[in-house]
Amino acid sequence: MAEAGYPDGRDAKSGRPLVINYDYYALPTPERKAEIDWVVKQFAKLGIQLEVRATDNNQFQDKVRKGKHQVYWLGWLADYPDAENFLFLLYGPNGKTRSDGENTSNYENAEYDALFAKLKLMDDGPEKQKVIDRMSEIVQQDAPWSFGYFPYSSAAVQGWLHNARPTVLIRDPGRYMRVDASARTAKLAEWNRPVWWPLVLVVLALAALVWFALRSFRLRERSTARGAAAVV
Description:
Elements (H helix, E strand, L loop, with lengths): L17 E8 L4 H15 L3 E8 L1 H10 L4 E2 L11 H4 L8 H4 L10 H10 L6 H17 L18 E2 L15 E2 L1 H11 L5 H35 L1
Parallel strand pairs: 1-2, 1-3
Antiparallel strand pairs: 4-5
Helix pairs in contact: 5-6
């Protein structure tokens, strides 16, 4: 910030605070408001005044296509499990404003772009991993993104369901799952085995209730008969 002329978040010449627009879109729910407030506070720690510009998705997409956005919050779900499907999001020719690609930050780096062009034609292996590592180093140094959100997933599944591994990458895991039908049937039979003792207790309780009711009725009849005989 000092190199850019804004020491402590103030213009070195005019003294005005550095104001950056936060282009944000989402439904105005309570948890979203807390999220926005948190982001504003984090920038304030750096002396940067963050101006929230909340819009709907259509307005946000129009901004990024015209290059009228600054700081934004966005995510990506890979179509296939390969580093290329994430690294292409920073490939220069894929710039959103220039070519309506998925490089929403409009990031360009000549070395990075050359490595990505090479990466696309490489098979998995040590050489490809070296290219990926170098591209990651370039991104870390240039910091077009702030990597601060690391989602995770978890699940509780039955033992007879195989390949049910929770993941944030694959959103259609049903096709990979396998059901062990025999194990499922055995477990259902074990879990659904009838338990009769509660029913026996209920029957005994009803029988006792009927017996007490009949006994009380007979005692009442005898008592009434004796009273009538005494009156006569």
